[in-house]
Amino acid sequence: MTTDTSSTEVTDGFHLVIDALKLNDINTIFGLVGIPITDLARLAQAEGMRFIGFRHEQHAGNAAAIAGYMTQKPGICLTVSAPGFLNGLTALANATTNCFPMILISGSSEREIVDLQQGDYEEMDQLAAAKPYAKAAYRVLHAEDIGIGVARAIRAAVSGRPGGVYLDLPAKLLSQTLDVARAKQSLVRVVDAAPRQIPARDAVERALQVLKSAKRPLILLGKGAAYSQADNEIRTLVEKTGIPYLPMSMAKGLLPDTHPQSASAARSFVLAESDVVVLIGARLNWLLSHGKGKTWGGPKQFIQIDISPTEIDSNVAIAAPLIGDIGSCVSALLAAGTGGGMEKPSADWLGAIQERKDKNMAGMAARLNQNPAPMNFHSALRSIRDVLKMHPDINLVNEGANTLDFARSIIDQYRPRKRFDSGTWGIMGIGMGYAIGAAVTSGLPVVAVEGDSAFGFSGMELETICRYNLPVTTIVFNNNGVYRGTDVNPTGGADVAPTVFVKGARYDKVIEAFGGVGYHVTTPAELTQALSDAIAAGKPALINAVIDESAGTESGRLTNLNPQGAKKK
Ligand code: ADP
Ligand code: TPW
Predict the structure, then answer these.
(1) Ligand lying nearest the CA atom of residue 423
(2) How is the chain split among helix, strand and coil, in percent rounded to 5?
(3) CA 425 to ligand 2: nearest atom
(4) Residue in 71, 69, 63 with CA at minimum distance from that of residue 30
(5) Ligand 1 atom nearest residue 325's Cα
(6) Could you give the strand order of the β-sheet that contains 136-139, starting from the edge strand earlier in sequence?
(7) What is the radius of gyration, based on Cα positions, of the chain?
(8) Which residue from 126, 417, 477, 491 puts its CA 20 to 30 A from 332's CA?
(9) Starting from the edge strand earliest in sequence, which strands make up the sheet with 446-451, in order?
């Protein structure tokens, strides 16, 4: 409309926001309407963008974040002011923590009233609130700055280490008018939003020397490696060097989990025994025991490939930092020598890993092959693993405590960027948001494997899934509570224990309320059948999978992080 000078000579803030996004090939908005952005959502749809409306902004934000992770383009979340903004802010902070590019665009109330704290409708200084939790935060006050504002937000979200950006759009801005010709000139098409960052030659050489000194090398792939889409380079590096590798949970599938060089089944062994570790897009945070302690065994040298220079030495000394984008860094390593001429790891090292793998895999197979009644995490996950093996393109969303820990190690991934989980924070509530974001972005089916507690955080988005008829199958591992369902109130009072839910809840009935298909299963055979049928139907479905309520452990594998009181209650 803004280009149609014959029918109108002025445009407005609403149109400029949409024009600026479209000019940068952003075609989807995840959001929730209300004052002052309802017309912005309407206009987006009218102008050919996809607007996916949610029931709570946190899930719209999570959908935007995962879209950003999948595509390297910032996902957009649109909310109203104050409470809507704050609901979205959790997702923005989570995106920043996980290095996912997204932009949270929120309408805001009258600046004059907000700044004097005179009590406006949904009054809040949103820009100030967003700053500590975002990679960058901007406010646009003049319609002619919308183009620049959107351009800055895009560039901040995707360049360097990706993250969440907040863009504040006061209500008054949206209705400001601007001459069409000036408006057109004010728009910016961002050129090379995430420039390649080539590593320095001496840094490459240093990394190579450290690698050549290795007796027991290991490559560790993180979700930064998956994000970088340097799939071929990474595969070449792994295969040409012959070095065993470990994927972090969201890097699973970068090479298929069945790859002979995968050391996943010997994780503890390789972490402790390796002497040189090449970190590719993975931080030495709590998920990797901060690179030290018992998990990491004896002294070792790290080579760290990362785009963020300040990540280096964050927890332990890094012998060889390699700063740049992963594609460029891995290519430089290949060109400088790891592409050939480097000795393969010793048969001793590879043999010891294989021995551990065989032993651990035999142990796991024995557990998986049991058929207890009621079904437990292992027997249920065996069913899911076997069905998903036949659908390597399916996107897998996974959250919970035990449900997350067991699914991560039991369900194999075969393709990159197909597994989306609780990530760096270990957050609950990403489930339906990520599922919707992944389905909308890829056009492919999604299976969400959810603890019953985890599911509850975003459960109402089942309506969203049904409304857009998305091919999402949610499997609720129903063990009647947080971690498990067996705790009791020690006082004998009427309230149940803090971890316990309604017994025998029928989550399958919830999706039926919105026209989706519900399944109630109690055995692995029923689960296999239900999941196969649901995937084949390609329609919204929920499988209520009844799990032994005593099967889970407190906090899954993180029991040790629970503070211990001196006195047992
Ligand atoms: P994981 O949880 O899988 O271990 P993290 O989220 O901790 O992974 O680490 C991802 C790392 O990848 C971050 O330090 C981030 O700076 C880095 N990163 C993200 N994108 C790129 C890229 N394109 N090139 C290089 N490093 C990247
Ligand atoms: C936003 C704390 C970690 S895991 C979990 C909670 C509440 C749920 C575990 O029970 P669930 O899984 O989902 O039934 P399972 O397989 O063990 O039975 N609030 C937020 N994030 C986190 N991580 C929590 C609370 C938590």
Answers:
(1) 1
(2) 45, 15, 40
(3) 23
(4) 63
(5) 24
(6) 50-53, 28-31, 75-79, 102-108, 164-170, 136-139
(7) 25
(8) 417
(9) 419-421, 395-399, 446-451, 472-478, 541-546, 517-521
- Three-state secondary structure call for residue 451: strand
What residue ranges line ligand 2, CB within 6 angstroms? 400-403, 426-429, 451-454, 477, 479, 482-483, 552, 556
8 Å CB contact between 244 and 263: yes
Which of the listed residues 384, 409, 482 should we mutate to test ligand 2's pocket, taking the one with most ligand atoms within 8 A of CB?
Answer: 482
| Nearest protein CA to atom 6 of ligand 1, as residue | 98
| Enclosing H/E stretch for 420 | strand 419-421
User: d(Cα 16, Cα 406) in Å, to the nearest integer?
Assistant: 48
How far is the C-alpha of 441 from the C-alpha of 63, rounded, in Å? 9
CB 157 within 8 A of CB 194: no
Distance CA 34, CA 383 (A): 43
Cα dihedral 306, 307, 308, 313 in deg (nearest 10): 20
Check if the beta carbon of residue 555 is closer than 8 Å to that of residue 562.
Answer: yes
Residue 53 in tokens: 């409306």
Site to substitute for ligand 1 among 73, 159, 227, most atoms within 8 A of C-beta: 227
- Judged by its nearest atom, the ligand closest to the C-alpha of residue 398 is 2
Lowest pLDDT segment from 45-49, 118-122, 215-219, 256-260: 118-122
Which residue, by CA, sits nearest to atom 18 of ligand 2?
483
Q: Is 311 in the pocket of ligand 1 (CB under 6 A)?
A: yes
DSSP per-residue codes, 148-169: HHHHHHHHHHHSSS--EEEEEE
Rounded to whole angstroms, how far apart are CA atoms 183 and 5? Answer: 11
The tens digit of pLDDT for each residue in 441-495 reads 999 999 999 999 999 999 999 999 999 999 999 999 999 999 999 999 999 999 9
Residue type present at position 279: L
Question: Tell me: the pLDDT tens digits for 528-540?
Answer: 999 999 999 999 9
